[in-house]
Structures are given as C-alpha cells and as structure tokens.
UniProtKB/TrEMBL annotation:
GO terms for biological process: secondary metabolic process. SUPFAM superfamilies: alpha/beta-Hydrolases. This is Dihydrofolate reductase. Keywords: Hydrolase. Residues 20-289 form the Serine hydrolase domain.
Length: 325
C-alpha cells in the first residue's frame, strides 16, 4: 500500500466539514508508528483537549482557555512514516521482541486503516521517516518519501496549524516547519546537474511543497529532537527557522547527543528551551504538560492579537512567556 494512502488515512477525520479545528501534526520517533505514538501520548492529548476546549454555543460565555479562533476544538493527527524498518535497522534489536502482534491493517488515531496491508503482517511494527546512511555523508535515505507522506497528510487534513515530534519526529518537525516558511525555497541551492563522486549534492527544495501553498506553521514542538548535521541540509537552517519553537530536552537522554539537541535550538530564531530530569521520552507529568500548554497559550494569544489588528506594543519572543515553574 502506498505511503500516500497512509498519510491520507491518518488525516481523513480532520478534513471532514465542521467548525474550524486547531490541527496538530504528530510525528513519531524512529521504530514507532502513528498508532504507537498516539498510545504513548494519550495523556498529552487528553490534557490538551481539556486545556483548550471549544467555545460553548451562544449565548453562553466562553471560558478564558477556550479556542476563540477554533470552535471545533483541538485535533491531533498521527501519520506513520513510510520507511519499514527491519531488525537489522534497529540498534540492539531483538527480532522476537520486535515481531509484530498486529493484524494486516492498523487503525490510526482517527479509527481508520493507516494503509498498511498484508505485506506488513509478518514484520515488526517499526517505521521511520528516513534511515541514516553511514558516515561520512550521513545522508537521510528516504527523506523524500517521508516528506511526501507529510505533504499528503497536510493536504488531506485541509492544512495544519502546528507540529509536535519526538526524537526523529522532533528533528522532522524542524524540517517541516522550515519548508513551510515564506521564501524558504530560495535557501536551497539548485542541485548540480553533474554530481561528483567526492561530494554529496545539496538537498533540493521539494517542488511538490511549493504547490502545497500552505501558510507557515504557528508553532512547532520537539521532544528529544536534533538537527541534520550533513552539509547538504544546510538550507533547512540558514536562515534560522523562524517558526515559534519549543524544545524539550531530557537531561539524562542517552540516545540523542546533547550537542545535536542544543545545535537544533541554536538554529531556531524564536525558541524556548526546557530541560526535564529524564531520558529519551515525552514527559507527560502535570508539570511538563503544563509547559506545552503554556507555550501554546502564548502562541495562540499572539495569534488572536494579530487577527484583531492589535498594534499596541511589540511582540515578545517565547522567552518572555510564563511557564509553570
């Protein structure tokens, strides 16, 4: 089954007619899937739905936390990466543990088939947005396929407002946010018509994303994310990513090198960096969910001010927002 079908199935419910929703793209980590990432972040989803309820119908007064611009409430969209991983692709893997216990089709967060068919029945339910080639070039093999799945998901959803990603998905959140920024395509040099055997050609801006005609994201969030170090991906980060970005880093993370996470923060112009006292996971405790909620409230409040044409005062950066500690 094609990755196009996979992405469309994950976003189908978000595109149904109805009141406008705050749509957030949820990008899983390496070896996960949309459904497995959804299962791991249910507490996060529940907290967001509670924190940002849709406004009640007139004449009832809306609570302060309601989404004035999004009467349909909030919706998280969980696509699955197109790169099927095998035990050999996963460091320290045990084939008996990774063996899939799923049936030939797997439901998405919206209760629909994600498009994976019988060809996947006997393998591990482990997926990625790309696979990294061996050094020295560290090319992201299959990145174009991952980008196409996300593009199709965004298209099927009728657009999205923000993105949240974990690990590889956190890194991918940066790439997606970057591609949707105005004039970003000019940051990517034209691919050389005559690539040499000694250099890796620069990554070319995907033409299909130009045709997407999507506004820049309102926000992006990375948990245990990192930046793409290879020279060929410089266009994603120069100039710096302008999208408002929350970076949540685990102080005990032994999977992603600290330098790569910190380097990611440095490549974002409007970034909030928060460190939790844990490892390589999405923290869903009350305090850390509060950080996400506070960040989103700040972003959405500024968005409402812009819609109201509020010209009083200067915009503050995310470093000026209040966090619950």
């Amino acid at each position: 089954m094609s990755s196009k079908t996979d992405g469309e199935a994950a976003a189908a419910a978000a595109s149904r007619p109805g009141p406008r929703k705050l749509k957030i793209l949820m990008l899983h980590g390496y070896t996960q899937s949309g459904p497995s990432f959804h299962a791991k972040t249910r507490a996060l989803e529940k907290a967001l739905v509670k924190a940002f309820p849709p406004p009640p119908p007139a004449p009832h007064k809306s609570p302060a936390s309601s989404l004035r611009n999004y009467p349909g409430g909030i919706q998280l969209i969980y696509p699955t990466g197109p790169i099927r991983l095998h035990p050999a692709d996963i460091p320290g893997s045990d084939p008996s543990v990774l063996q899939s216990s799923t049936t030939s089709t797997i439901s998405t967060a919206n209760g629909q088939s994600d498009g994976r068919g019988e060809e996947d029945e006997d393998g591990p339910d482990a997926w990625g947005w790309w696979k990294k080639a061996d050094a020295p070039d560290e090319t992201y093999v299959g990145l174009e396929r991952g980008l196409e799945v996300v593009r199709e998901t965004i298209l099927a959803a009728g657009g999205v407002d923000g993105v949240i990603g974990f690990s590889q998905g956190g890194a991918f959140a940066g790439l997606v946010a970057s591609l949707l920024e105005p004039a970003r395509s000019s940051s990517f040099p034209s691919p050389s018509p005559l690539p040499t055997s000694t250099t890796t050609p620069p990554f070319a801006y995907p033409a299909a994303w130009t045709a997407l005609n999507h506004p820049p994201l309102k926000f992006a969030v990375s948990y245990s994310g990192f930046y793409a170090q290879a020279e060929q991906y410089r266009g994603f980060y120069e100039p710096k990513i302008a999208t408002r970005f929350l970076h949540v880093i685990g102080s005990l993370d032994s999977v992603v090198e600290e330098a790569r996470s910190e380097g990611f923060v440095e490549r974002c112009a409007d970034a909030l960096r928060v460190v939790h006292p844990g490892g390589h996971f999405v923290p869903v405790g009350k305090e850390w969910v509060g950080v996400l909620v506070g960040f989103l409230r700040d972003v959405l409040a500024r968005d409402e001010q812009e819609d109201d044409g509020d010209a009083c005062g200067e915009k503050g950066g995310v470093e000026d927002m209040d966090v619950p500690f």
